[in-house]
Write a structure and sequence with these properties.
Length: 227
Amino acid sequence: MRERRLIIAIDGPAGSGKSTTARLLAKRLGYTYLDTGAFYRALTLKVLESGVSPDDGANVLQLAESIQIELQPRADKNRVLLDGRDVTQAIREPRVTNAISPISENSRVRAIMVDKQRAIGRNGGVVMEGRDIGTVVFPEADLKIFMQASLDERARRRQDELATMGIARDIETLRQEIARRDQKDSNRKIAPLMQAADAVLLDTTSMTIEQQVEFILEALEKKLKTR
Ligand code: DC
């Protein structure tokens, strides 16, 4: 038994395998799994439902200040509540994914989301995944992993994920959408997607989920031994 409950930060682009790996890792460690993309997705859904343009910074900010986002851990994934309503499925729809970039680029919106994420993770015992966990949310995390995979593989994974929701999308469209989102996530001024200097790189292109979890557990052991 470890005395201190740790903070594990996992960052990487869409489809790199973060969510499934982070969730299984959290289960192995008896930790809470936190998917920070769900915060930006829930806000984006609220923006779309309110008829506010994602580019309307002032109104988006007002919504960010007023909404309640709750993540409830479940065995298969986090259940996401937006103002008390279950939006777990709705936030994964392509209309949300495609409207998210201008919202997640807003620095004041990000400050609100980061506060919420820190409040949940501050006592440790979390595996938190996103784009800026190791760089901004918890730069003092006990272990940082940066996950990567080829664009083709990531598009294929996204296609499978959507198929389980009954949504059929062709692979080339998904490839282009992911490339566009990578571009935006990596080049935005505030909290861009990037590997922290002290993060361990994990390329998952030809790895199974189980191998990814084992890789991180080994990286954790190594890190703890060197402290
Ligand atoms: O991980 P995801 O695909 O659910 O994330 C959706 C979007 O949210 C992604 O395009 C970028 C944004 N995001 C972010 O800016 N910072 C995070 N920590 C997590 C997600």
